[in-house]
Each structure stands twice: as structure tokens, then as C-alpha cells.
Automatic annotation (TrEMBL):
Residues 381-397 have a biased composition (Basic and acidic residues). This is Iron(III) transport system ATP-binding protein. One of its GO terms (cellular component) is ATP-binding cassette (ABC) transporter complex. The keyword Membrane applies. GO terms for biological process: quaternary ammonium group transport. It holds the Pfam family ABC_tran. Residues 373-397 are annotated as: Disordered.
Amino acid sequence: MTSQQPSFTAGQVAPGRAPVLAMHNIRHAYGHHLAVEDVGLEVRQGEVVCLLGPSGCGKTTLLRIVAGLEVLQRGRVDLNGQAIGRPGRGHVPPEKRNVGLAFQDSALFPHLSVLENVTFGLESLPGRQRRRRAMELLDQLGMGRYAESYPHTLSGGQQQRVALARALAPAPQLMLLDEPFSSLDARLRDRIRDDTLHVLKRVGSGALLVTHDPEEAMFMADRIALMRDGHIVQMGTPRELYCAPVDPFVVSFFGEVNELEGVVRQGRVDTPVGEVMAPGLPDGSRVRVMIRPEALRVVALDEPPADHHSHVIMAKLLGRTSLLHICAHAGGGRESHLHARVPGVFLPDEGQPVTIRLDPSQVFVFPADPGAAAGAGAAHGEAEQDHREYAYGHDGQ
């Protein structure tokens, strides 16, 4: 089928619930460099929205505009329906926006204890209430026993938890997180972001998270805005972006893919691993066929068939999955080097003959001519899965 836009897009409001954050037609430039162009998005109460994209795509610029660290040049920013940013109508400073900020650098006050760091922004509360609020958040983040410790005695992960507690302590309407986990090692990063997600959901604040890591975005976000060159390419749930991508960039950003070329004949494209449906694309048009490695279902054969057959070049165990390098054979002597991801331990010998079947939900077809792709989306099978595996991409032609 042809990919459709997600059911919730920027500009829409959930029934009966005004957005915590609304950004409209944001444009921002640094000198002659245009960082963001015509961007709009919303964050609802209790929702985590992730700005995802490569370095320089404009995601951090958007977060800084919301935080008040950049003066808005064009567009409008509303917080709970109240304008906090409009060009020429006054700039609301960060400290008056009721937003919490968490960055890669925890930026704790070194001369204050953990408890004092968390209570720093709670001067309006009586002393006992300040302590109670701070200890409640520290306990939720597993840092209660370190309340009297000082930042230099804590690990990087512990410092990040304290920084998150400090940002959440004033009960902000919106949390802004700019790559807060990127400086942590992989195992610790997984644990910290899991704790962070649980706390965000428990307190019910809306959250805008910036990251360049697609796995982190899929884990943390209710919706993802994938950006490129200052624009949002696609916005939707993790499942929508992974299973119904509207652009080749969206497919490849969530993990490398096997990429082939072909020609549409009667709504189908012939590939070395079988026919792929391409409805909505004109006959005779050249297309890009993008196949996720988990879409290749590999079965070892006891005996090679009499005619040409596909075979294993190499197999590597990567822990939870096995990575297979496969030479896929097709009619006319065509061969393609493909990579397949198989769950568990599956390590056939070099030269092992195999058959390959496709999961159509993870195969995407786009016009080879970018100009012809405008509005066309991807043609592919019904989406049946919502998972992510890193894979290897190779043009088999």
C-alpha cells in the first residue's frame, strides 16, 4: 500500500486537551545560515515528543527557542495557550517560562549538597515542603540516600539524575531535555533513560527531548519529529515512522538497509529476493527498493537446487541476533550482496545454499527520481511489526 501521513500531525490538538506547547511557523537563522524553516509542532500534557535528526538539522535551535535562550525571529510559541514568544512583542526570559531544563552537562552547583541543589529553585515554599518535594523526586530517581553528598562524589549517571530532579522540582509545565544521556556509557544510559521516562510519566509534565539517537527516540517518545535541514520530514508515533516512512531518509535513519533498484511492471518490482508490490507507481518507472535486514527470512537448504541458488557468504553472531552476508541470485545471472538479521544463533557455513522470503511490512519502494517522489510516499506491504534492529546497507546493482 502507499504510506499515509500519521493520524496525528503538527497543528492538530487532541480532543478536549489544549497542548502544553504549541509552535507555529517557526523560522530562525544565524546570519546567512537558515537553521529552522516553517516548523510547527505541539506537545500535550504527559506526552514526550522527541526532536530527532542528524547534527545541524535544527533540533537544538528549536529547543533553545522554546527555552527562551534564543529570541524568536519569526512565528509564535505558546505555553498552555499563552504566548511566550512573538517577534516584536517582547521576549519572555527563560526564568519566567515555567519550563524545566536538562542538558548533557548536569551543571550542578559544586558547593551545594544534592538536596540543596534540588531545593535551589523552591524558595517560594516553606523549608519543610521544599525538603519533602526534593526528597520525593530523589527517591523516585534512586538518589535519596545521596541527599547529603556533594556533586564531585557522584558518578556521571548519578549527577544526571540529580539534575533531572532539580529541573522537575518546581513542577514545570514543560520539560526540555537536550541530549541529556549522550555523555553516559551504553549500559548506564539505558538505565538512566528508563528511570527518566518513568518519572516524566509519573509527574505528568509534557516533555520535548532532543536526540540524534533513533533508538533513544523510539524508547522515550510518544511521538517523534524527524528533522533534516531545518524541516520536519515526518512526525508521528515510533511505529508510524518505522513502519510507514514517507521518505527514503526516514527509512535509512532508523538503521541501514539493503537497497536495490528496479523497474515497476504491472504494479510490481522484480528483485533477486522476489517480487515487491509497488501500487500507485507508474509502469516503467525506476524505483528504489529498501529492504530492512529483518525483512529477509532465511532458510537453509539440505541440497542446492538444480538451477541458480542464493548462498551464505559469511555469518556472525552479534549476541541477540545473527548477521548473515548473503549472495542472492536471480534470473539472468543477477547477483546482489545482502545482509539479513536473524534472531538468536543462526550460523550456517560459508557456501550454504538458502532460500529467502520477504516480510513485506519492512520493504519500502520509492521513486528513484526524487522529484517524482513528492507526495508519493512509499509503496509497501501492511505494517505488522514495531521493532528496530541495526542493519547493513548495500546497493546490490
